[in-house]
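Backbone shape codes:
===
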Amino acid sequence: MLPKVILHTEVSVDGRMDWMLDDGFLYYRAIADWQVDAIISGSNTMLAAYPETDAPEMLAAPAPEKAPGLQRMLVVDSQGRLRCWRQMQQSEWWGELTLLCSNATPPEYVAHVKSLGVDVIVAGDDHVDLRAALEEVTARYGVAVIRTDSGGTLHGALLRAGLVDEVSVLLNPCLVGGISPRSTFVAPDLSSQEGAIPLRLLEVSNIEGDIIWLRYAVSKA
């Protein structure tokens, strides 16, 4: 069984995710009362938040105990890029961690992550099979609802795999511009409109100042 996946993001009017004109905290305040069981993030997002490698003394210390009721954090990292697992364990924003990786993930990396007390789910051969991984997340932890806290690459993979049920967008009242792929949906270009994903409007509201909150259901075939 698959969990419900809510893609939550904030973008400028021209669809960028960078250099927006606010403090960023509205992104989290808007969904403070959401009942979700887990959060999913990609390695790019975690590397941006934790660019430093875990210090040796940090690795030698035991994993911190987590307060009850915090959502599990699912981290997609098939290439074994992250070296900040102890730092992530110390975060007050989520509970236990789970690495989602593939059969191509270096075995020594998987062993290191497990040695820190982090759960590991292996799904897929050369990259993470997100559908299989999320099915295992539900089976293993009883997770029913997942929220994204990530960038456009993971969003794109989830959307193209047909795994997103709802899209929640805070529309920031600014224009950023640029040519780099910093949109909320990064994926290969389509060759026709057949691959476009139709949405159905659920709610629109003005939540603060000139920021608009749009919520859509993903129309699945």
